[in-house]
Each structure stands twice: as C-alpha cells, then as structure tokens.
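Journal club side-thread
Mid-discussion, someone asked how the predicted structure for our own chain would compare to the paper's figures. Pasting it here so we can look after the session.
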Amino acid sequence: MANNTPNILLIHCHDLGQYLGCYGQDVDTPNIDALANEGVLFENHYATAPQCSPSRGSLMTGRYPHVNGLMGLAHEDWDLHPNEQTLPEYLNQSGYSTHLFGLQHVTDNLDRLGYKHIHSGGSLSPAVSPAIHEINRARDIADTIDVFFEKDTFEEPFFASIGFFETHRRQNNGLYGFVDAEYEAADPSEVEPLAYLPDKQGIREDIAAMHGMIRAIDDAVGTITIALEAAQLADETLVIFTTEHGIAFPRAKGTCYDTGIEAALVMRYPDVIDSGQRCDELVSNVDVLPTLLNLLGEDVPETIEGQSFLPLLTEEVYYPRDNLFAEMTWHDTYNPMRAIRTNQYKYIRNFWHLPLIYFTDDILKSKAGREVHEQLRSGRRPYEELYDLEEDPYEQTNLVNDPQYEHVRDQLRGRLVRWMRNTSDPLLEGPVPPADYDELLPQI
C-alpha cells in the first residue's frame, strides 16, 4: 500500500484531557506512552470546546461549533447542519472502508455520520442512558477490535473510529464519580493533587478513582496495538490517540482555561512519522481533518477552518499558528464564552451573567465539586479575562484591567471579534436560544 493511503485508527475517549504519563502526569499509561515514543506527541494541542459534542463535531468536520451547528450536546437536540461533511464521508470518497466501534457523541442519527459499517456501540454518551456505559467500556470495544482483525474480514484501506466511554463520570446514588467494581482505584493518599485546585480529600478520592478508568483505557490501547501487529498491519496504519477536552474536575471541563480545552494528540505511522517527536507548536483539533486529507493527497475544501500540520511531520515548510480559538455556548445550561489563545496569552470573553466558575452537572454533583463549590462558584464572572500563561499557567490572576497589559488585551479582543465576525458567530446578534426553543415556545 502506498504511504499516502494508510489505514487509520482513531482512538478516543471521554473527559481525559492530557492526564497521561506521556504528558507528565503521575499516572501509569505505558501503552499510550509507547505510542508517543514510537511517533509524535503534540504538547500544545487544544480542543475548540471544553465539552464533548462540540469538540467532537470540530474533529469530525474541521469547523468550529458555532459554524457547524453543534453548539451544545447532541443528546440535547443540537446537531450538525445538514450540509456539514464529516471525516468518514471524506474518507469514503477517497476509497476507504469506514467503521465505527463504540462511542460517538456527535449525533443521534448514525446514518448522518457516513460510516459504511457500524459495529458494537455507536451510541451517544453515558449521560443518555444508564446502560450505555456497559456497551462502550474500553475493554469490550478493544476485544471487538481484536476479533475484527483476527477474522481478517476488513477491506483496505480502512478507517476505524474507536470510542471509549471512560473517563466519563457515572451517577450513583445522586453522586457522580469514577467508582466502579470494574476499575481498581489508586490510593488517594498517593496521588498528586491538581495544581489548580486545593488539596482536599474529596478531590484526591476522585483523582484516585479516575486512575482506575485511565488504566482501563491504556489496557485497551495495548490490546488494539497488539492486534494490529498480529494482523501485520502496524507498518501501514496511522494510529491516532486523542481526547476531547479537559478532565471532569472543577476549573477544567466546561471552562476555556487550558485545563478545560487541553487535549491529548498522539500519532504513530512507521516510516512516515519519525519516532520520539514532541511538537510544541499550537495545534487545534479542528486541524486534524485537513491534516488527514493533506496526508492522502486530497484537496482541502475552503470551507474547512482548520489548517494542516502535516508539514510538521514531514519536515517541510510549516507556517505555525499564532493563535487558536475555543468556545462554549450551551451544555446543561447557558454558558456563552469565546476565547483566543496565543503561545503566551489567553483572552476570554464571557457573554452572560454567570457564576465565577461554571460547573457541569456531573462536576457539581461530585466529591471534588462539593469540596470547592462555595469557593469557586460564589461571585460573578468578569465579562473579560486575560492571563499571562508564562507567568500564570493555571490562569489564576486576571490581568484584564492591568495597565501594563492594556495593549495585549486590546489586540486579542480585536482578533477575537474579527474571528467571530468572519465566522458569523450568532453570539454577535445576542443570546443564542436553546436547540429545542421551538418546542418550548408554546409553553412560554
């Protein structure tokens, strides 16, 4: 098979951010670390949104959430616009056999995604049904992939999206956590606290429980890579491991701070991607689709808003991003914000009267959330935020009114507004109604 038509495995999971050993976190992830050592790890990869469906929609379309229509969760009536083209559809046109294994959270209409073959799972999210987590466990999906390769029934080139429900919190007796007999938690006294949160017992217990789910993800990645090697396909397969947004803890998921929009991105493709690379250039998950099209030698449509980073991997001339954008509009409530990040600064614009820190419902009703609820939610969020990421990597000190940073604030504010105008962001016209507004209207 020619190098420009690799098989492609896209492995993804919930709510993990960059909480992996290869990203410097105190958690054992030997199989994902091995992928990184054999390929490339992107240290500054960020999602377009700090929540599931909008981020995944950008990965699948190469376009921002407010552009492709997925401004909230897919199971909350938000969906891609009818004319949006997805990654599987692009790859179908390039002669790929496209497969979906396990979780997706882009639409409740599987036909809309364009996969030729839908295997186990294919459901939305553990938030939709109590039984879904049983369908999309990493272990079970990995075993399905193992059988898929063992039976040798696939057609090449193939693309397989492989989605795990871990590390999504689960509800048990009104509390959302990571505790499950399926997973072995770490010792809370031995985990490292999160640098952006106080060191409290409830937070430690949640971190320790999350470690058990992370080990399940890593074991599944190991099962899949071993199966790939056993099928003698490893050398001609691009393996991508990525995550959708930051971990499900306060001041992370649901915020546009780095801890909310950071996402892992590891890629391995022997003989094409040199092993042991660590790229520190700014990369957005909106860039993944155009990169894959570029790799296949396909034209990238002008409607795609991401930019290909393939030259980074092939040592060709690359014009790096000088900024990237992130956004949030709806989740379990209205939380409109837009953000721009450069290598040094972060500017966030909040468009509503909001609590100081937004907690998604699963975080609000968690041990970690209860520990810091009063501290982080009290008070009103400022309409503008500015952070110097070199001096303040956890975005604790808002510099928006500091005279020394006035020029930075004005410059980034201008860039953000121009981006919103260029992409016809509906927030510029006022509040964005919920997706089911037409159904609610008769009740108002």
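Post-session note: The CA atoms of residues 350 and 383 lie 5 Å apart.
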